[in-house]
Each structure stands twice: as structure tokens, then as C-alpha cells.
Amino acid sequence: MYSENEKVVPIAIENEMRNSYIDYAMSVIVGRALPDVRDGLKPVHRRILHAMNELGLAHNKPYRKSARIVGEVLGKYHPHGDTAVYDTLVRMVQDFSLRYPLVDGQGNFGSVDGDNAAAMRYTEARLHSISTELLGDIDKDTVQFVPNFDESLDEPALLPARIPNLLINGSAGIAVGMATNIPPHNLSEITDAVIAVIDNPEVTIKDLQKIVKGPDFPTAGLICGRDGIRSAYETGRGRIIMRAKAIIEVGKGKKDQIVITEIPYQVNKATMITAIAKLAENKKVEGIYDIRDESDRDGMRVVVELKRDQNAQVILNQLYKHTQMQETFGVIMLALVDGQPRVLTLKEMLTAFIEHRVEVVRRRTQFELDRAEKRAHILEGLKKCFAHLDAIIKTIRQAKTIELAKAALMKNFKLTDLQAKAILEMQLQRLAHLERQKIEDEYLELIKKIEYYKAVLASKKKVLGIVKEEAEEVKKKYGDERRTVIVAAEEDIEIEDMIKEEDVLVTLSHEGYIKRIPVSVYRAQRRGGKGVTGAAMKDEDFIEHLFLASTHDYILFFTTKGRVYWRRAYEIPQASRQAKGRAIVNVLSLAQGEAVSAMIQVREFDDKRNIVMVTQKGVIKKTNLQHFSRPRASGIIAIKLQDKDELIGCKLTSGNDEIFLATKAGQAIRFNEKQVREMGRSAGGVRGIRLGKKNDEVIALELTQKNTTLLTVTSQGYAKRTKFEEYRLQGRGGSGIINSKVTEKNGHVVNVLSVSNDDQAIFVTTGGMVVRVPVAQIRASGRNTQGVRVVRLKDKHRIASAARVVAKEEIAEE
After folding, report:
1. Which residue of 103, 148, 716, 765 has the lowest C-beta tally within 10 Å?
2. If you compute the radius of gyration of the chain from its CA atoms, what whole number of angstroms results?
3. Is the pLDDT reported for residue 475 higher than 90?
4. Of 63-77, 310-324, 653-667, 697-711, where does the model show the most confidence?
5. Is residue 344 included in any domain, yes or no?
6. Whole domain around residue 252: which residue ranges?
7. Both 472 and 509 in a single domain?
8. What is the pLDDT of residue 753?
9. pLDDT, tens digit, 9 for 90 and up, residues 633-657
10. Is the Cβ–Cβ distance between 289 and 253 less than 8 Å?
11. In CATH, what number is assigned to the domain containing residue 49?
């Protein structure tokens, strides 16, 4: 039912919903969620700072209870929940939330672990000294004041802001249909950029990026790559990759540990630690032994302790990938410009701040001018008073009332109302001669100031000069070094980039255990030494294969069945000198009865090199390296073998090398590589050497090189060096000539190596002992000789294998 005076106007519900929601959205956008580009503050931040300033809570005054501040803000300016106001106040205190905190707090204001602040009745606060730069000159008509929510008071629509707060502290907010996420920056860099724009308004964003390196987060950390920064500054939107700062240290028991000292911005440290622990518990990241938080008042320190012989760099990379140790900061540089939300570039933000400062300086100068002119006007009246002192005194004495005296002064001496009032209020002590001189001096000083103020107002160049000068003062007062380091782009960082490149010794035992060990583990020994333990072998096991490589090399594993597998050197598990390593079947997908017979390292696969393979029965094959660039996990065919034949060796060749084959019975053959035609991967090869003696087999494949000799090692611990020239060049497929005189004393030939005088050789026994000997200490001898003893063998041990080590470090260093 409707009353007689009511009028019903039908409205379409969709129109009402549209208009109401637009009104609500604009209220949120303008009045709550987005910062103003000029002072970088949202209304709640601005109101808190203004209220604290009105309460006189300067940085050099005593603290006041936070509850008192929140009450002041709620009662006068911000009619919302007290929790929202206090949470904002807390964030303005936290040095891990704001790059330059605006409020100085006393008490528990939360932590980087996500701990909540104490209740507002327990904490105290006052303005931080840098807030002076935001609030300074607010009483000089520098900004517009508007009525508060009940129109009982006025509040500033924005702050004078001498510092570019929007950029140095950043901002984050979700409005209706839009959001802002501006990262914090370094004050020194931003003020330098402000000065650069003032000096050259045509400066490009590219030039500004030479000054502003990128965001500078309060929690420091790393930024990976510059593409996201460049995009954010040029378009207002970008994607910045943040990483924790972590170093690898050696802890107790010589175990590696990852020490995290800085984390990405807005990451909860406790949550990050929990996530790392869960990854270790769920075996998504293997190798973590323990994790503990050793942070204290001196700084952050989270220690991830690793199990023995783990690759710390690989685990660190996995932590970056699977935890908040790496986070993305999506930059949206959205702010209110003249009440309208706009996505801004870096230069547009700087320009808007400069325009704001120009307006503030002009309004301040006008205020100072008006005040100076008013005071000068009064002083002019006082000077007239001194010029007609007796007459003025007489006029005042004759007047019956103050109003009549003021009217008489204005009429008789041509004074204004303000001047007459100042004369009437003047104390008698001002009539003294010295006081009269002070007034004269003050008047002259004011005239100079008035001229200066007018000159400033008449010249934008002078106004900009003041803005520049004040920016330099701010930098000098509050500028500091940047905390966040910018490193190479995340997508440019491969796993191998995080692996220390070093020479490693890859060993494979007879029972099939593989590991890698840094070459520096083994100390250099004199010839005839007893050696150090190289592996904890079972009695029936011994080191069968040795291979020297760099951690960044590709390693091709050729097996006895003529297949090849592909791995990176750092993917081979690292172990201590005494450890036996990991079963090869856990590293390679070997078939039943398949064993690794040869390993070679390759930096890159090209078509200029070949792989030459030799089998136990003397078959040789040459295939272009490119054919091996894409092996499958299950392996690919390298050579087609005949029955009961096995692949025993492989070498990389240039196409013009000379091949040297050696047999167990002491025979050898040398021929040119060109005598072996290039074949496909699945081909079977041709005869390389004819085996004449019973049970003889090929045990080594070498390439002849200039300035090298042939090191022949026999099973009883003997070795000799012989020049390649002593082995005449023959045709492929012959029986060869004598390489070593095989006797019971020196035993059968174990390996033949091409070495130089600067090389070192490693000999491994069937008992797992390792001896490292400089090649120069092994005497050179003829082709048909036994050699000299290089290893004193224990019990019934024999030499199992030998490898060449290029001497990249001096023996003395070890």
C-alpha cells in the first residue's frame, strides 16, 4: 500500500544494479584500494600519518600507544574497522614490508615468519624521521584540504611528499576490476632518476634504466633477469623473478649445507622452511639431511644440511624450482592520476611526482610571499609610527575607545586597518632605538625575500631548481646502498651453470658401481708409493674403468653389447674416496648381462669428428659423431657385434689420426685412420688387427699424437714409456709388432696410454688402492722391454686399470 503523497517511479533492475555497482566500484578505486601517484599513499595511510602529525608524534618525541593513534584515526578521519587501521599501521612499521618504514614502532609488530603483531594496547608508535619528508610544509597551504566523513574537520586530499614514496615503498591493492602491484625501489636511484628527468625532460626510459637498475626489496634477495624489469618500466606491466640468496658451505663432517640468508619479498620464512621439509620428507628432493632456522637479531640464516657426497648446486636448483625460494612479482604500475586509475611507465611516474612537487613548491612559495607581504605591510605601518611618534601617541591618548583610536589613526596617518591594529597592539618597549633598528632590518630582509618569492613564481626553471635541490637533500639524508642484486635471467640458467666446473675422476667397478670424485682428492705420490684407498671394495670387486672428465661434459657410455648411453658428468653421483658409489643399473638402463666397456666425454656433437670403436676380437669401426647426439634412455646401437665379441674401446678422431691398437699378449699395430671407411651406426666394422696368439685380445685403443709417448702398464705393477716412432706405420688388419715383452715378472698388458711429460697417471689395483704418479718419473725404454716398477702390490693384488690425468694443477698445491 502507498500513502497519498508517495510517488512510485519504476526502474529497470539491471540499470539500478549497474549504477549502484559503478558507484561502489569508483568508491573502492578512488577512496580505498589505489594509491595516488603524487604521494604514493592510499587514504588510510594518509589519514594515519596526518593524525599522528596532528598528535605531535614526531620522530624525536615520545612514543604513544597504538590504540590511541587508531582511535584518533577512527574518530576523526577513517570511519571503518579498527583492525583495518591497526593492520595498516603495523605494516608501516615493518622493515621487511616497506623498504623505508614510515612509522617507528616499539613492541611486537610481527615478524618475517608471519607472526602477528601484539594487540594495539601493548604496542607504541611515533612517526619515522623519513615521514617528515611526506608531511613537511603541510601547514603552508601546499595541498588541498577536504571535509572529513562528517564534515566536522578537514583532512588533506594528499600529502606534500618530498620523497617519491610510490616508487621507493611500492604499493599493492585490489580494487574492483583492477589491481595494483608496484615494487619498492632504492631511494638513491629514484632521486637520481628524478634529477635526470628535471635536467632533461626528453630522457628516455632506456636511459633511466641505467640509473634505476630495478626494484630494491626490503628483504634483499636476487632478481633473475632484466626482461621483466624492462617491460614493467616501459609498459607498466612486467614479471619479475625473485630468488632467495643462498650460499653453499661445508659443515660438520665435511657435509655440504645450503645457507639461506635472504628470501624473496613477501615470502613467509616459516612457510618456506615447512615446504622444504615436506619436499625432503616426500622424497621430491633427495639428499636433504636436516633443516634448521638459525636466524637471530643479527640476520637471517636458514641452514639446509645435506647428506654426504650430495651435489649441493643441483639440490639448490631444485629448491628454487619447487619452493618459495623463487617467486614471481607481477608488476602492475597502476595509480590514481587526477582521480583516474592509470597504468604508468617509469617516466610517467617520475614526471607526475615532479609536477606534484612543482605545484607544492609554488603553493608554498605563494604562501610565504603572502605572509612576507603581510608582515612587510605591518612593518611599513610601524615605520610610519616611528616617523610620527608624538602625534600618534597624542591621537591614541585623546581617543575614548580603541575603535575610535584605530579610526583616527587610519584617517590622520593614512594607515590600513591591519597597520592601525598593529600599532595599537605594539608594546612600549618596541619604541626603544634598538627595537626600531630591528624593525628596519627586518623590513629590508623581507623586501629581499619578497623579490625572491616573486622571481621563483615567475620562473618554472627556478621552481624545478628548488625541486632538484630538495631531491638531492633527501638523497643525502636517507639514501643508502641497494639491497637486491640483479643476476642473469632465470631461463638462461641451466643446471650446468650452477655446477662448479672441475675435473672429476669417474670410476666404474667390476661389480658395476659408478661414482665421480674430484681429481684433487688424490694427493700426488712419488713412484713406488703404496697409494691411498680409492674405494671401499668387496674382496671380489675392483675398479675396472677410470675416466677423466669435466663436470659439464657429456659422457657417452659404450657397452660390451655395442650400445651407447648418454649422461652429463654432473648427473653421475658424487661419492667420497672411500665410498663404493652407486650401482650403474640405477644410472643407466642397462640390459641383462650388459656392462660398460668404454666411456668418452664430448663437449658438443658436430660433424667434423668421428667415433672409432674397437672390439675384443680386433674389429674396428668409424662413425660420425653426429649419429650419437640423440640417444634414447634405453640406449642406441653403436656397433653390430659378431657372436662372443665385445666392444672394448672408443676414441674421438678428426679424420686424419693414426690408430694404435694394443693386445693383452703384448702385440701392437699402428695405421692411418683413413684406412677405415666411415659407416652407419648399425654397421659391424672391419678388421683392425689379426690376433695370432691363443687367448689374445685387444685391450687398448689409442691415437698417436706429437710430443707424446706410449705408456704401457702391465698387471704386476710395471710400466714403461716408448716413443710412437718405434712402431712403424703398417696396413690395417695385420698382426702388428711387439709392444711389450710379456713375462711372469711383469705380467700381461693391462692398458696402453698416450701421455706427455706434464701428465700424471693413476693406477688402480684389484684391491681398490689408487696411486697417482707423474709420468715424468717413469723411465723411457724401448719397445721390446719390461719397464720399471711403479706400484708395489700387496699380496696377490694386480693392476686392474690405469688412466691419464692432465696436470692442470701443480703437484705442490696438493
Report:
1. 148
2. 43
3. yes
4. 63-77
5. no
6. 245-324
7. no
8. 86
9. 678 888 988 888 888 888 888 888 8
10. no
11. 3.90.199.10
Query: What is residue 535's three-state secondary structure?
Result: coil
Kindly state whether residues 557 and 704 are assigned to the same domain.
Answer: yes
Do the domain assignments include residue 239? no
Residue 530 has pLDDT above 60, yes or no: no
Q: Is the distance from CB of 801 to CB of 545 less than 8 angstroms?
A: yes
CB 41, CB 143: distance < 8 Å: no
Three-state secondary structure call for residue 486? strand
pLDDT of residue 597: 80
Q: Is the pLDDT of residue 728 over 50?
A: yes
632 lies in the same domain as 762: yes
- Helix (H, G, I), strand (E, B), or coil: what is residue 694? coil
Give φ, ψ of 163 to 5 degrees.
-105, 145
What stretches of 676-792 adopt beta strand conformation (E)?
Answer: 686-687, 698-703, 709-714, 718-723, 737-738, 749-755, 760-765, 769-774, 788-789
Catalytic residue among 2, 21, 77, 122: 122
Q: Does any domain span residue 46?
A: yes
Cell numbers given for 10: 519504476
pTM, entire model: 0.65
Q: How many residues are given for the chain?
A: 814
Closest CA to 323 of 418, 242, 209, 235: 242
Number of domains in the chain: 4
Most confident of 48-62, 586-600, 712-726: 48-62
Cβ(193)–Cβ(212) below 8 Å? yes
More confident residue, 740 or 169: 169
Q: Is the dihedral of CA 353, 359, 363, 369 positive or negative?
A: positive
pLDDT > 70: percent of the chain? 93
Q: Is 24 a catalytic residue?
A: no
Q: For the purposes of burial, counting CB atoms within 10 Å of the CB of 443, is it exposed (0-12), middle (13-18) or buried (19 or more)?
A: middle
Claim to verify: residue 48 and residue 140 sit in the same structural domain: yes
Q: What is the CATH number of the domain that holds 275?
A: 3.30.1360.40
213: Cβ–Cβ under 8 A, 6 or more apart, which residues? 186, 189, 229, 482, 486
pLDDT of residue 811: 30
E strands of 94-158, at which residues? 103-106, 124-127, 145-147, 154-156
Whether 741 shows a pLDDT value over 70: the answer reads: yes
Looking at the fold, whether 406 and 290 belong to one and the same domain comes out as no
Listing DSSP states for 586-605 in one string gives GTS-PPTT--EEEEEEES--
Q: Which residues neighbour 243 within 8 Å (Cβ) at sequence distance 6 or greater? A: 221, 222, 223, 224, 264, 320, 325, 326, 487, 490
Element (H, E) at 305: strand 302-306
Residues 303, 369 share a domain: no
Phi, psi (rounded to 5 degrees) for 224: -95, 110
Within this chain, do residues 114 and 260 fall inside the same structural domain, yes or no? no
Question: Last residue of a domain, which of 160, 190, 209?
Answer: 160
Which residues are registered as beta bridge partners of 259?
Answer: 247, 303
Q: Pull the grid cell for residue 721.
A: 714409456
The pLDDT assigned to 493 comes to 47
DSSP 3-state of 657: coil
Q: Is pLDDT of 528 > 70? A: no
CB atoms within 10 A of CB 149: 12
Q: What is the reported pLDDT for 22?
A: 78
Contacts of 263 (CB under 8 A, 6+ apart): 112, 219, 221, 244, 245, 269, 272, 300, 324, 325
Q: Mean pLDDT, the chain, as a whole number?
A: 87
Residue with cell 607581504: 373
Distant-in-sequence, close-in-space partners of 200: CB < 8 Å, separation ≥ 6: none
Cβ burial, residue 325 (10 Å; 0-12/13-18/19+) = buried
| Domain containing residue 370: CATH number | 1.10.268.10
Tell me, yes or no, whether 704 and 790 share the same domain: yes
90 lies in a domain? yes
Beta bridge partners of 770: 532, 764
Dump pLDDT digits (tens) for 245-291: 999 888 887 788 999 999 999 999 999 999 999 999 988 888 899 99
Q: For residues 266 and 226, is the Cβ–Cβ distance under 8 A?
A: no
Residue 497: the pLDDT is 58
Give the 3-state secondary structure of residue 648. Answer: strand
For position 676, which CATH number holds? 2.120.10.90
